[in-house]
Amino acid sequence: MNSKIRTILVFPIRAIIVFALVLDGIFRPLYRPVIATISKLTFIQRLESRIARLPRLAILLCLAVPFAIAEPMKIVGLVLIAHGAFKSGVILTILAHLSTFLIVERIYHAGREKLLTYGWLAWIMRYVRFARAFYDRAKSSALSWIRLRLLAQQR
Fold first, then answer.
1. How far apart are CA 135 and CA 31, in angstroms?
2. pTM of this structure
3. Which of 6, 20, 3 shows the shortest CA–CA distance to 125?
C-alpha cells in the first residue's frame, strides 16, 4: 500500500520533469543560439560575474524569484489559450519560456558551482540529467520511442 501511495505522490513530480524536458527538447534549437549570443554581451558577463561572487543563498534567491514568476505564467498562458484568448496566451507562454531560458539559465550558469553545494539541488540536477539523457536516447530511436509510449499507456 505504501508503494502505491508513494507512486501516486511522486507521479506529479515526474510528470512535471518529463513535461519540462519535452518542452526543452522542442524549444532548445530555437533558444540555444539566442542564449549563446546574449551570454557574449559584456553587460551579461559582468552580471554573471557579480552573481558568481554572491553567497549561495543569495544566488538561490536570484534564481528562485524569476523562476517562481515564470513557471506559473506558463500555466496561465495555457489557461488563457484554453479559454479562447489565444494571442494573449501564446504571447504570455512565449515570454515566460524566454524568461526561463534567458534569465534563469544565465543565473544558474553563473552560480552553478555554489548552487550544487546544496545536496537537494544536486540530487534534482542529477535526476534531470538522467531523465534528459533517457529522453534523448529514447527519442533518438523511433522504435524505442513508440515502445516507451506504449508502455506508458499500459500503466
1. 19
2. 0.62
3. 20
Q: Which strand (E) or helix (H) includes residue 3?
A: helix 2-39
pLDDT (tens digit per residue) in 53-97:
999 999 999 999 988 998 899 889 888 988 888 899 889 988 888
- d(CA 73, CA 95) in angstroms, rounded, equals 9
- Burial label for 18, CB within 10 Å (0-12, 13-18, 19+), is middle
115-135 b/e with 16+ CB inside 10 Å = b? bbeeeebeeeeeeeeeeeeeb
> What's the grid cell of residue 150?
506504449
DSSP per residue, 15-70: HHHHHHHHHHHHHHHHHHHHHHHHHTSHHHHHHHHHHHHS-HHHHHHHHHHHHHHH
Tell me the per-residue pLDDT of 84-140, one tens digit each, with 9 for 90 and over: 888 998 899 888 888 887 888 889 989 999 999 999 888 888 887 777 776 666 666
- Looking at residue 141, the DSSP 8-state letter turns out to be S
